[in-house]
Amino acid sequence: MKSKFLIFSTLVLICISACTKLDQKLGGSVVFTPSSGVATSLLNGTYNDLTGLLHGQDQIFSLEENTSDESLVPTRGGDWDDNGVWRVLHAHTWTAIHGQPISVFNGLGKLESDALATLASSPTPAQADEANFLLSVSQFYFLDLFGQVPYRTVADYNSIKPAPVYQPADAVTQLVTNLTGIISRNALPASNTPNRANIDAARFLLMKVLLNKGAFLNRSAPTFNDADMQQVITLGNQIITSGNYSLTPNYFDNFGPSNATTGKEAIWSWPNNGSSNNGGINAGGINARWMMTLHYNSWDQQNTYGGAGWNGFSTVADFYNTFEGHGDATANTVIDTTQDQRIGGRFYPGVTNQSGLRPGLLAGLQKNEAGTGEVDRHGNALTFTPTVSLVETNPNTLEITGIRIVKYPPDYSAYSGGNQRNQLQMFRYADVLLMVAEAKLRQATPDAAGALTLVNDIRLVRGASLWASVTLVNNSNVADPNTLLAERGRELYWESWRRQDLIRFGVFLQPWALKTADDPKYLLFAIPSDQLIANPNLKQNAGY
Predict the structure, then answer these.
(1) What is the pLDDT of residues 373-420, one digit of tens each?
(2) Of the N and C termini of the chain, which has fewer Cβ atoms inside 10 Å?
(3) Alpha carbon distance 14, 335 (integer Å)
(4) DSSP assigned state of 270
């Protein structure tokens, strides 16, 4: 029997049958009696629902990045075709049957269901607010990606009746209420920071909700309420003045194998520690972040680490050229390492000396640890070029087109084994500074000086030149490097925020490299057809 609720709490309850009394009733409804340890098991299971959603290259990352001007996955001969599922995201030509949104929708449903099951299992106050936070994460992404939020109350969390559905205004109200409650109750222990739900993570998510509220309510023409912007600033200042965070001097220390200790910016991060389990939370397999972009032969032709990469994900010259010190990508000149460190090109201890890899945006000839130039599988110099197409056919160049991005310096102790120590950065301090700066610019009376100070604080630490002024966006040129939108791109690239930023800044439908101006329907993804059948309260988004 197909459940009429698209969130599968029954499966969760069956999985914990060893510690739960299950009573199966006619019609498929499951009732359980809480017992010792149930809430803990359910809560850990809820966290683990996020593992694939946030780490997988074909989940939230793909929907937020491959639909943007920062990322694309070219079809390279027979590689990465997959019936076109990757290239249609960047070109904004996907359809209602695209598998990645369907998978994400189902994953978010399970996350929401498991959070509700935890809340129904007599949790402690702290466990309840952890579950409430994870519930809000699920509902936030439902709203962001699909514009509709199926939900249940705790009392009927395992009902088989069709789930009610929040439309955007009610969804925003519910998110604000839930997150404000978490903050005001202050039940989450300080020891949760940054690897479990914590008060600052709730503040951060509430900032995201309020900053994007106008876009959630009207994606084609976002507006910004002054009271909301003031609250974003207040929440951000609470994080800024807490003394718990600071900008990390070496940008890539935020993402390397020791970022749990060397990074100073993690507000909420996935607790990878080199083992398969982290206090009940599974390892995330962060290796996809470098495997998906590196060439098959990158610095590992001897197969020392089990293969260098999958030779897929790339970026375009327009994005690369927004960085100071980018050189001339077309001529493959050396990056000027005296400029913005976020572009990469610098020696990174424990990585460059082992493989030659210099984390960041990889352009030009790639070299191994001995300084010897690498080659592709046809024997051509492995020189990543800015020229790239959505479909590559020339066998002499198809393996090397597209500038590559390695945001997370590889952990060679477990390069491709799934137990890397790099903690996935989900909420980061630099984003707080940029959100506050944006809110200051969007106030009824803009505080341009205050916004500029925050942006220059970041640029100073990153080695970029200081700005004399700051503006939000250039509506006629998405790639204009002198805007706050561009600064968000340089600071937060490949951290799964770009699609949301482009929509909020009003330029998601503008043309950019390998994408023409397009249909407003792509401001949302389609509701999966099986979910529409299962739940008549869901309505297909316009245009699908």
Answers:
(1) 999 988 999 999 999 999 999 999 999 999 999 999 999 988 887 899
(2) N
(3) 55
(4) -
Measured in whole angstroms, how far is the alpha carbon of residue 386 from the centre of its chain?
24
Query: Which tokens belong to 170?
Result: 């009610």
The residues that bridge with 23 in the sheet, in sequence order, are 31
Token pair listed for 300: 């590992």
User: DSSP labels for 74-86?
Assistant: -EETTBT-GGGTT
Question: Are 504 and 211 a contacting pair, CB within 8 Å?
Answer: yes
Neighbouring-strand partners of residue 24? 30
Buried/exposed 80-106: b ≥16 CB within 10 Å, e otherwise: beeebbbbbbbbbbbebebebbbbbbb
Q: What six digits make up the tokens of 74?
A: 């070219």
Strand duo 75-76 + 391-392: pairing? parallel
Instruction: Determine the Cα–Cα distance for residues 300 and 503; give it in Å rounded to an integer.
Output: 39
| CA–CA separation, 333 and 328 (whole Å) | 6
Burial class (CB in 10 A: 0-12, 13-18, 19+), 221: exposed
Place of tokens 């925050």: 454
How many angstroms separate the CA atoms of 443 and 214, rounded?
A: 13
Q: Is 263 exposed, middle or buried (0-12, 13-18, 19+ CB in 10 A)?
A: buried
Cis previous bond, 194, omega within 30:
yes
And the tokens for 503? 């929509």
User: Could you give phi then psi for residue 9, rounded to 5 degrees?
Assistant: -65, -30
Question: Could you tell me the pTM of the whole model?
Answer: 0.92
Output the six-digit token pair for 189. Answer: 């222990």
Strands 266-269, 364-365: pairing kind? unpaired
Which residue positions in the chain have pLDDT lower than 70? 1-36, 300-303, 306, 326-338
Report the alpha-carbon angle 275-140-274, nearest 5.
5
State the Cα–Cα distance between residues 357 and 368, nearest whole angstrom: 7
CA nearest to 430, candidates 495, 503, 348? 495
